[in-house]
Design goal:
The protein is of the alpha+beta class. Helix content is 27%, strand content 16%. Strand 7 and strand 8 form a beta hairpin.
């Protein structure tokens, strides 16, 4: 049976399924037929969103209010307090004090999250990670509400409810949740070519991070900076982890979710407890209208990025998370982020997704937190003076004092309340608006495949293989063959080799390429900045070595290993036959962090096997011990071992397959060399990588 084509695309590349195909008419909740469900109403294309659009407002309003009681998206979150310190002033570009006053430590609160899963879902689901930062500045709260991926699935906020509905558990059965490996998600995606760039990112290892501490963050959208003279520049925000990027492999993610579904939460909690404070650098890509006009893609399109080779990321400050929350519900659950929370000197572009988010986030908080007074909750309250004439409402904790609850009034400076501040008040950028009032997708948004291809060709062979495996896995869970075939047809437009790989994995013939609104550009160069493996961490700092110990193991070797790891900034976790720990050959007692049955090697970045010959012989009969070593090898981890441990290697038939990632810990020099080598985190030259 021939594959059904995707939905017809308009000039801007937006898909449209209509009543002309035999469907009943889509209406508003008032029964009014809807002409366009792909784009919201704009003042010109892609101009700012208009409040006239009652269909968008009703659709988004209902979506914002549909979840009880947790967040509709980003329900599974974890957060910490910290500070931001500006190191390089942007006074040339903005009047925002948080970006011009160097050396000052601005308090902040950062929440990380998964998108699709509920509050009880596991940490290591394959998913985008939210990366939201609330700066408590002297000029009010600034919320930089981003993700760990720089692009998004859709171009217009009108489609956000549809996207999330498709990704969530299917409504008739209530599963699967916290995953996209099902028909509804891939049906929507395969009918939405604009999502193809994001597909490449979510099928990469970026969506299974090893730690919240080891992932990048992005503001996603193009924002504006406005200086004291009213001049505007465009800006994109980047968070760069000081300890580098790292992900797990898929099989590890599956096992970690079983061994410790709170893996990311526990990691962040423990890091702060130990004083190993997570740190990121804040970087910016700043550019003007001239670059925006000359760039191959529309900078207002949230499905596109600007390669760092074109506009280098300028590091301007650092964020340090140094304090855990006192109460999870009061802070992490009740914090309210809004993209519309900006301070003087920071503004918005006409990105149609950003424009819609500015409406949606505020509306969501009103529902989720019980009313309009959510800024009275301490975690959301600014740390600078807050003076308004707004009063009453559900859970109001403070009201205007005195007789006047309006302005202008005649009650004077003492009793009359606050007034406008013409010198320091927020000033919107005076952007000229010229165009018709229409719900259209700009034609400059119509290229859906070129940057998807650029991302794919920028990856190493290992990363590309993981992407192919991920696509095969996800699509193999799709029951409807038509959806699988249509998705592979999109991949042909990205990379024929990738499409062939996925088609072979699914057991189908590679279909013809999906008809594209614009042909794929073949001349975009690879960008090394888009690859994690091309940008490895500089050391083992912040990582964890799992040491499998038993009684009478060499104290000299263990202490040398411990000293070397700690000097490198890493930590040791002791895995033992019993939770009581072990006694080394010099009589020293070493408490255990994990019993071998509950401390699988997937929890660690590298492992060391330090057993006596007698213990190794005994452990060779224990499945958890064999799994510990076997999984470490299968997941390309570095493995240190003492010679007396070989019986365990022999038990899993590994003794004859040891490679350069297996390092004997026989001398002080070899131990030092091992710790230096494990900074690479994976031995990708192992067979099967």
């Amino acid at each position: 049976m021939p594959m059904k084509p995707g939905a017809p695309l308009d000039k801007g590349g937006a898909p449209h399924q209509t009543t002309k195909d035999g469907y009943e008419a889509l209406t508003t909740q008032q029964g009014v037929p809807v002409r366009d469900d792909q784009n919201h109403l704009k003042a010109g294309t892609p101009g700012p969103m208009l409040m006239d659009d009652f269909h968008f407002r009703e659709k988004m309003f209902h979506f914002d209010h549909e979840r009880i009681p947790e967040r509709v998206v980003h329900a599974r979150g974890y957060a910490a307090h910290g500070f931001f310190e500006l190191t390089a002033s942007l006074e040339e570009f903005t009047s925002a004090k948080v970006l011009t006053e160097t050396g000052k430590k601005v308090p902040l609160f950062t929440r990380f999250s998964t998108v699709a899963g509920n509050k009880g879902s596991p940490d290591l689901a394959r998913d985008v990670r939210g990366f939201a930062v609330k700066f408590y500045t002297d000029e009010g709260n600034w919320d930089l509400v981003g993700n760990n991926i720089p692009v998004f699935f859709i171009q217009d906020a009108m489609k956000f409810p549809d996207l999330i509905h498709s990704a969530k558990a299917e409504p008739d059965r209530g599963f699967p949740q916290a995953q996209t490996a099902h028909d509804n998600f891939w049906d929507f995606i395969s009918l939405s070519p604009e999502a193809m760039h994001m597909v490449m990112w979510i099928m990469s290892d970026r969506t299974i991070p090893r730690s919240l501490r080891f992932m990048e963050g992005f503001g996603v959208h193009t924002f504006r900076l406005i200086n004291a003279k009213g001049k505007s520049s465009f800006v994109k925000f980047h968070w760069k982890p000081k300890m580098g990027m790292q992900s797990v492999v898929w099989n590890e993610a599956v096992k970690i979710n079983g061994a410790d579904p709170d893996f990311h939460r526990r990691d962040l909690w423990n890091a702060i407890e130990m004083g190993d404070f997570p740190e990121w650098e804040l970087g910016v890509q700043i550019f003007d209208d001239k670059f925006a006009d000359s760039f191959a893609f529309d900078v207002r399109d949230a499905t596109k990025l600007i390669p760092e080779e074109d506009i280098p990321v300028r590091i301007i400050g650092r964020m340090v998370l140094d304090r855990r929350v006192d109460n999870f519900f009061a802070e992490t659950e009740q914090v309210a982020f809004c993209t519309g929370n900006v301070v003087p000197g920071i503004g918005f572009s006409d990105d149609p997704l950003l424009q819609g988010r500015n409406f949606s986030y505020l509306d969501t908080q009103i529902k989720r937190l019980g009313g309009p007074n959510f800024t009275h909750i301490p975690i959301n309250a600014p740390k600078c003076p807050m003076r308004t004439f707004q009063q009453d409402g559900h859970m109001a904790m403070k009201n205007p004092v005195g007789r006047a609850n309006y302005e202008p009034n005649s009650w004077g400076t003492k009793d009359g309340g606050p007034r406008e501040d013409p010198d320091n008040g927020y000033q919107h950028f005076a952007e000229p608006i010229n165009g018709k009032k229409e719900a259209l997708r700009p034609e400059s948004f119509a290229d859906h495949y070129s940057q998807a291809r650029q991302f794919y060709i920028s990856q190493t062979d290992v990363e590309q293989a993981h992407m192919g495996d991920a696509l095969v896995f996800e699509l193999s869970k799709v029951e409807k063959a038509e959806i699988r075939e249509r998705m592979v047809a999109h991949l042909v437009n990205i990379d024929k080799g990738l499409a062939d790989t996925v088609a072979e994995g699914l057991g189908i013939k590679t279909p013809m390429a999906m008809k594209a609104a614009r042909p794929t550009m073949q001349d975009l160069k690879a960008s090394d900045a888009l690859s994690m493996l091309k940008n490895p961490p500089k050391s083992f700092a912040g990582r964890k070595l799992g040491v499998f110990l038993c009684d009478d193991a060499s104290a000299e070797s263990f202490n040398a290993l411990k000293d070397a790891v700690e000097k490198a900034g890493g930590t040791l976790a002791i895995v033992a036959p019993t939770i009581n720990g072990v006694d080394l050959d010099d009589g020293t007692h070493v408490p255990a962090d994990e019993k071998i049955d509950g401390g699988p090697s997937v929890l660690f970045d590298a492992v060391a096997i330090m057993l006596t010959e007698e213990c190794a012989d005994d452990m060779a009969k224990k499945p958890p011990a064999k799994d510990f070593l076997n999984d470490a090898f299968a997941h390309y981890k570095y493995i240190g071992y003492t010679p007396d441990s070989m019986k365990l290697f022999e038990a899993i038939a590994m003794a004859d397959h040891m490679d350069g990632g297996c390092i004997e810990l026989g001398t002080a020099a070899s131990i030092k060399g091992f710790v230096s080598e494990i900074a690479k985190l994976r031995f990708w030259d192992r067979d099967g990588a």
